[in-house]
Amino acid sequence: MSVKINKLTNGNVYIDGISHFGSFKEVSSPELKAVQVEHNALGMIGKLEFPVGFDKMSLKIAWNGTYPEALILNSDIYATAFLQIRGNVQGWDALGKTDTAILWNVRGRFTGTPSVELKQMSDAEPSTEFAVQSFQLIQNGIEIVYIDFLTQEYRVLLVDKTAKYRANLGI
């Protein structure tokens, strides 16, 4: 059995289809976290937790400078934006190096203008937060997960986990 090591080595961010290559220092992906409810009942020897939905998601962006077009987009808290973050995953195994793609498709809104610290002889590195309404993770051409809070869709490996839920609610 061969060991496989994968490292996310670099990336590029697109906002509404426009490349911002070199504009970001760091981007953190949305965290898909289940909201759990506790269940205990008379006669049970323990408590259980069951998922009932998802917590809100956000994406954090650390810019490597100030860009007027980004400041405008960040300032409109009502405008929906589409972000695509493309990355390169280097894999290493007994046969050598491979490169595969990782892709995040994210739709949502910027939560406000970034705060900027001005320091003598250092770069201004503003950071912003993006409130996520839909998120799709694709690696090596395979959709790992897709979730959309407004359409009530949740897929894992293309299996629709909320189809029955939507049907039960008539949506």
Write a compact overview of the structure shown.
This protein has helices at 68-75, 163-169; strands at residues 5-15, 18-19, 24-28, 34-39, 48-54, 57-63, 81-93, 96-110, 127-139, 142-148, 153-156, 159-160. The protein has 171 residues and is mainly β.
What does this structure look like?
This protein has 171 residues and is mostly beta strands. It has helices at 68-75, 163-169; strands spanning 5-15, 18-19, 24-28, 34-39, 48-54, 57-63, 81-93, 96-110, 127-139, 142-148, 153-156, 159-160. The chain has 2 helices and 12 strands; from the N terminus they run E-E-E-E-E-E-H-E-E-E-E-E-E-H. It is globular and about 65 Å long. The model has no long low-confidence stretch (mean pLDDT 88).
Element pattern in H and E: EEEEEEHEEEEEEH
Low-confidence stretches: none
Tell me, rounded to a whole number, the average pLDDT: 88
Give the overall form: globular
Helix content: under 10%
Oligomer: single chain
Number of strands: 12
Number of helices: 2
Give me the secondary-structure category: mainly beta
* Beta-strand residue fraction: over 45%
The N- and C-terminal alpha carbons lie at a distance of 47 Å
Write the layout of secondary structure elements.
Elements: E1 5-15, E2 18-19, E3 24-28, E4 34-39, E5 48-54, E6 57-63, H1 68-75, E7 81-93, E8 96-110, E9 127-139, E10 142-148, E11 153-156, E12 159-160, H2 163-169
